[in-house]
Amino acid sequence: MPDLEDHFDRTIERDQRVEPRDWMPDGYRATMVRQIAQHAHSEIIGMQPEGEWITRAPSLRRKAILLAKVQDEAGHGLYLYSAAETLGADRAELTAMLIEGRQKYSSIFNYPTLTYADVGVIGWLVDGAAICNQVPLCRSSYGPYARAMIRICKEESFHQRQGYELLMTMMKGTEVQRAMVQDAVDRWWWPSLMMFGPPDDASPNTARSMAWKIKRHTNDELRQRFVDMSVPQAESLGVTLPDPELRWNAERGHHDFGPIDWSELQRVISGDGPCNAQRVAVRRAAHENGTWVREAAVAHARKAAVPRSAGVFA
Amino acid sequence: MSAWPLYEVFVRSKRGLNHVHVGSLHAADDETALRHARDLYTRRNEGVSIWVVRSDHIAATSPDEKDPFFAPSGDKVYRHPTFYAIPDDVPHM
């Protein structure tokens, strides 16, 4: 395979995209399938924390917005499953791996949404962190993944802005509402920083993913970018980020921030977060409850496919 | 295996442009594939027309034969306008 490998290396080197039917190293294919599937699962599981608030949204306007947002998350999951399938993964198998706990999803979705302010903070911080992560992925070396990310990033902007606007509205409300926003920020800030993954010196796959141009920036670079973006946004909103060590460092041209409790991330990833069991159980129930719909649609399609000359009318 | 077959989706974003491939989805039949494509790929007026086609009905070139397959067009420079030297002072050429 020296020719094929050489062709692959040159494609990456010239910053061209790898496309579905191209030869690629087994490690590249496996890494892409794992990353895309994990990303797709995150979008699908990510419907749950906010979905819980659809029936309790405070107005018809907020309900319509939240419905549209949760529908987008479903869409993002499906764009990504579609990209994973171009690598030979089977969608039903990916769903099975999620509900059997054989593949992971972002640890952030294992935290509960305790108040309606959480919906706003998820839009602002969680989707904001996702955007930081995802914008560079629009230039990822695998073509179908990069194209899915472009579509997703366009839609994420709505998600972040609706969240921030929701919080601005609450901050103009009562003392109780302002306290709800601050409480939600206190609970979501650190988990949002953990979304970027382990620190660079504990992220063994980063170097290879960067060499393959799957990733364009390290976890710590993106985390720093997110902190720098969020500080002025928090000021404008009138909330305090829960980190006494957070301050501008003129020498570095960045904000310094306090140490992250990586044992918490490890605990949540390994299944011991507040909502892990519930999230997977809900996904499993949705899949199992949908079995009859999938089967009925196939039965209907078969029946409709029988030619009318045979005397059968669908 | 997935019970619903895989479909490829092509969307015309506005009149005057070609349909462009946007991704794939699973559906039980052509009609539901179109409805799913509408819900998945045109939530924000991205299209005025959708095509769906079963993925296994698409024939495609193989990347392995990329060079020989496209070779016949590689050596025909005379198909390009720049092959022909025309003096600069000849107008509208």
Structural overview:
The complex is a heterodimer of chains A (314) and B (93). Chain A contains 13 helices and 2 strands, in the order ααααααααααββααα. With 314 residues, chain A is mainly alpha-helical. A two-stranded antiparallel ribbon of chain A has the order 1-2. In chain A, strand 1 (247-249) and strand 2 (254-256) form a beta hairpin. The radius of gyration of chain A is 22 Å and the shape is globular. The termini of chain A are far apart. The mean pLDDT of chain A is 94. With 93 residues, chain B is α+β, with helices and mostly antiparallel strands. Helix content of chain B is 23%, strand content 23%. Chain B has helices spanning 30-41, 66-74; strands spanning 6-12, 19-26, 49-54. In chain B, strands 2-1-3 form a 3-stranded antiparallel beta sheet, with helices on one face. In chain B, a hairpin with a 6-residue loop joins strand 1 and strand 2. Chain B is elongated. The mean pLDDT of chain B is 90. Chains A and B meet through helix 4, helix 7 and helix 13 of A and strand 2 and helix 1 of B.
- What assembly state would you assign to the polypeptide chains in this entry? heterodimer
Strand segment count of chain B: 3
- List the strand order in the largest sheet of chain B: 2-1-3
**Uncertain spans of chain A, ≥5 residues at pLDDT below 50?**
none
How much is the average pLDDT of chain B?
A: 90
Helix content of chain B: 10-25%
Shape of chain A: globular
Number of helices of chain A: 13
Task: Please list the strands of the largest sheet of chain A in the order they lie side by side.
Answer: 1-2
Report on the biggest sheet of chain B.
Answer: 3 strands, antiparallel
Largest sheet of chain A: 2 strands, antiparallel
Question: What structural category arises from helix and sheet content of chain B?
Answer: alpha+beta
